[in-house]
Automatic annotation (TrEMBL):
The keyword Cell membrane applies. It comes from Methylobacterium iners. This is Prepilin type IV endopeptidase peptidase domain-containing protein. It is found in: Cell membrane. Keywords: Cell membrane, Membrane, Transmembrane, Transmembrane helix. Gene3D superfamilies: 1.20.120.1220. It is a multi-pass membrane protein.
Amino acid sequence: MTSLGLLVVFPFLMAYAASSDLLTMTIPNQVSLILMITFFAFAVACGLSWMVIALHAGAGVSVLAVTFMLFAFGVIGGGDAKLAAVTALWLGFDHLIEYLIVASLAGGALTLTIMFVRGLPLPFVAARLPFALRLHDTKAGIPYGIALAAAALVILPKTALWDRMIAV
């Protein structure tokens, strides 16, 4: 039952965060909150030591500190900052650099793709969709939550947490 957090809740919430960011340019606070609560419930249920839990929390707090500064300077959105931090909580320090690299590469590809598409005329069918109009707007941001969520889903199966879940 403890594997439910990794096999169902985590991927579902990451997909929800990505789709919400795509459609509304926001990631609801509830997503990050549920991911945080689920991590701690999973960690306790799996019998992780308090030291391991503290290290995972340290990874989350470290990423939150950096991403909050980026948010304060208008570089990223608040939802992106919280999603990156709660993902770091799940991943811990072991795969944090790898996650940040994958998220950066995915985010760069996403940004270049959206910028390219913004240079093209919007098809008539798409012009009737509010999210397509928002994505096509050159003044709008980039739904970076898509890259953060994709990177999380790529990296999580490589973690010790994942190995522990498989062993349960």
